[in-house]
Amino acid sequence: MSDRFEVRLAGTGGQGMILAGIILAEAAALGADKNVVQSQSYGPEARGGASKAEVIISDEQIDYPKVLQADLLLAMSQEACDKYGRDVKPQGWLVVDESHVKRVPPHACVIRVPITQIAEEQIGRIITANIIGLGVIVGLTNIVPHQAIIQAVQNRVPPGTKDINTQALKAGLNMFQDTRREQYGC
Amino acid sequence: MSDRFEVRLAGTGGQGMILAGIILAEAAALGADKNVVQSQSYGPEARGGASKAEVIISDEQIDYPKVLQADLLLAMSQEACDKYGRDVKPQGWLVVDESHVKRVPPHACVIRVPITQIAEEQIGRIITANIIGLGVIVGLTNIVPHQAIIQAVQNRVPPGTKDINTQALKAGLNMFQDTRREQYGC
Question: How many CA atoms are closer than 13 Å to the CA of B10, on its beta-carbon side?
Fold first, then answer.
């Protein structure tokens, strides 16, 4: 991966995109010894229920802390995909929750995963969809070590939900473990 | 307040500075209809246990999303005060948790509140210190409407802790309600 890796996590309010961003940032800082800036912007559009978190991971000091063109977008809603789906690098990853996202812009590397459906049917808790999504993107890209993201999830999820969220994370992590990046044209 | 208001919340890991930043940002975006960017940076220093969250609140679009010189610093640890205490505007607020902060740099407007002690003795839960701190800074500055910060706290704290966190917030909010800003030279 190039020195600077820009991740955007986008969905609707209540899907836990901000928590997912914080967990990914902590995993990168503590587990991979990287410089990280994690942010969320709110504006008038926040009233519409959209939610977006950004994570910039770099070996160098991060001078400009916003995503310009994402190396990876996780879109958990159709609105998020419509809004940010075109701001992904040509060779970047566009990962969508196909439980909610039906239309995807033309892109070389689209990964469709029924994240919310897995949360509901396999984990039994729809609220874990954000953590499954985290697992999927880390499993695909290895931007942080698996052990680091597991630790960060356990540090940050509410007490009493560590086990189910760890289970959700691992479901995501294992989904693409044996996949070669080239298979997807990314 | 000028158009752009820069808040830095700093303490040690586990004091909940990031959650406090997210809550303040949501209150400003949803309750005050402002543009907001909320961020945290992690680097090698994150290993040391320091924790810092930043919130920029503006009527205009926010082009540069990092704190340059804070309009308000909430320092919940001595290390945080040592590190960021001099990066406060001359007429800005330096609010310290005097349960942990004993040395403060020379500054026109220092507010000392025994935040952690109040959390422990008055609220009965030391973990609510971050929310008391939020109440203190909003009560002092009115950067967001009180109703908005109450709502944001209730949206974001873990289930089962809404009541105690609301109580903590109000303890902070009421502490300086009748104080005139001029009294502190700010």
Answer: 26
